[in-house]
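Hi R.,

As promised on Friday, here is the backbone we talked about, encoded as structure tokens. Could you run it through your design pipeline when you get a chance and send me back a sequence?
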């Protein structure tokens, strides 16, 4: 078991824990929504997605974000997951990111969706 993110206390008044699959989802969320330079001891950690929130939304922006996110996942989480696909769509005033990956530990296929903006 892992400590759940964001940190909170469960109904038993203990540190909340989570499963391996949910922990990996939490790691991905932290990675894609962290700005490079935001973490003191890991200045390169992050995808840069949040830096583009106020950029004009377009298919070109979605393609750039797709490469940023895929590169960050492969750099920082390659020991935990095998990235199958990263799909980024520009929808209205937001970017929708869908990540398909396989958990290395169990071989389980996962699909997670995240949204930035709006």
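Update: got your reply. Pasting your designed sequence below so it's all in one thread:
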């Amino acid at each position: 078991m892992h400590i759940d993110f964001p940190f909170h206390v469960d109904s038993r008044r203990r540190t909340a824990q989570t499963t391996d699959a949910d922990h990996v989802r939490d790691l991905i969320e932290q990675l894609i929504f962290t700005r490079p330079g935001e973490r003191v001891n890991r200045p390169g950690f992050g995808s840069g997605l949040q830096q583009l929130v106020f950029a004009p939304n377009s298919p070109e922006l979605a393609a750039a974000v797709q490469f940023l996110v895929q590169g960050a996942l492969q750099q920082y989480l390659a020991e935990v997951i095998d990235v199958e696909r990263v799909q980024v769509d520009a929808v209205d005033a937001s970017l929708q990111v869908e990540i398909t990956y396989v958990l290395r530990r169990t071989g389980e296929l996962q699909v997670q969706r995240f949204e930035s903006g709006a």
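One thing I noticed while checking it: The longest strand covers residues 81-91.

Thanks again,
M.
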